[in-house]
Amino acid sequence: MRYVGEKDFDNPAGDQVPNRGNGALIESQSSGTPIFLFEKVSENPVEYLYHGRVRVVDFEHNYRPQKGKKEYDFYLERVDSFAEDIGSEDGGESEDDLAPHQLQEINPETREVPNSEQTIEYTSSKQEQAIATNEHETTVKELSARLEDGRWECKKTQETDILAKSDSEALVVEVKSFNQENDGDQIRKALGQVFENSYRDVQRRGWSGKDLIRCLGFSQPPADQYSGYLEFLQKQGIEILWREDGEVSGHPETTERLL
User: Fold this and answer.
1) Considering its fold, how many domains does the chain have in total?
2) Using one digit for the tens of pLDDT, what is the confidence trace for 214-254?
3) pTM summary value
4) E-strand spans in the chain?
5) By residue range, what is the domain housing residue 60?
């Protein structure tokens, strides 16, 4: 599970710091200090539910786009049988769909095979599609305008949302719209497309002599649970931009590099 660290009580609006509870959780990795997890379930009267003993598997200090500051994400693992499934908002535990899954043996014979033909149906809302398309096009327009305020000349192709160049660089931006439920899926799609389009519209265009920069652009700041993943992508050379309150923003290192 992911547990969000506590604020800096001397500077609540600033980055979280490794003191008090945060420091204790960090040090527990080396000290082996036991950690017992409680969840507040009632304010009046104040009541807590005990979930058992846990340990810190890993932690990250991640930038939160919607808050403009860094917070600690502690990834916890249960070490006893008392724990129950839990999930809550900031300042506590939450579901983590990027947590590592259990290792399994590779055995094709265990795969499931349907006994009969199955029909899969789905519905699609034209209104929702239109909203997503408008969000996408608005994001492309605003990101392009902001990039052109700097050193970039922006165009697009049939596949690439923004193909920009400077004197020595080529920039490929894949834009996706979020609806607060599809962040993970859209990030995965964008990653595949930005690599394919880098080959198609940079390598095959004869721009291989330029320094290639890949970037993901989003219609709004990603959800907090993806902060660590986006930090990881940025360190691998994938830049991150998004729209926020009518402005173009992004990962701090990305905005410094591109804008």
Assistant:
1) 2
2) 999 999 999 988 999 999 999 999 999 999 988 999 999 99
3) 0.75
4) 2-4, 35-43, 46-64, 69-78, 93-94, 153-155, 162-165, 169-176, 211-218, 238-244, 247-250
5) 2-94
